[in-house]
Amino acid sequence: MPVLQHYSLIELFEVVICKEDVETPKPSAEPYLKALKAMQLSAYEAVAMEDSATGLASAKSAALYCVVIPHQHSKKQDFTQADHRASDLSNALFHVQSLASHKN
Fold first, then answer.
1. Can you give 18-41 as a three-state secondary structure string?
2. Rounded CA separation 100/104 (Å)
3. What is the pLDDT of residues 83-93, one digit of tens each?
4. Is the model's pLDDT at 104 over the cut of 70?
5. Per-residue pLDDT band at 71 (split at 50, 70, 90)
6. In angstroms, rounded to a whole number, what is the distance separating the alpha carbons of residues 96 and 5?
């Protein structure tokens, strides 16, 4: 959460779940399941965006569709379970928007 606060992004999120908010952090599904419950959403109604294999494992354990955006330190991690691998945030957003347009 400090990063979200530092860049003044915290207000963009309805729910923020940190490792201190759960008994079993990532790669457990608990963080995502807790967020889904707080937002009253099913896994089918949400998309996870992750930058690490640990986060991907957490999202997939919660049965979420997951877009990975590797960074310099994670680009060699195993992302084979990802539903989509994006080159950057713009590509990830475009992909998520295309998913939403196909559902409507």
1. CHHHCCCCCCCCHHHHHHHHHHCC
2. 7
3. 999 999 999 99
4. no
5. very high
6. 24
> Which of 71, 68, 72, 55 lies closest to 96, judged by CA?
68
DSSP calls for the chain? -HHHHHTT-GGG-S----GGG-SS-TTSSHHHHHHHHHHT--GGG-EEEESSHHHHHHHHHTT-EEEE---TTTTTS--TT-SEE-SSHHHHHHHHHHHHHHH-
- By CB atoms closer than 10 A (0-12, 13-18, 19+), residue 8 is exposed
Give me 48's structure tokens. Answer: 């996870």
Task: Locate 11 and state its tokens.
Answer: 């207000």
Take residue 35 and report the two structure tokens written for it: 């967020």
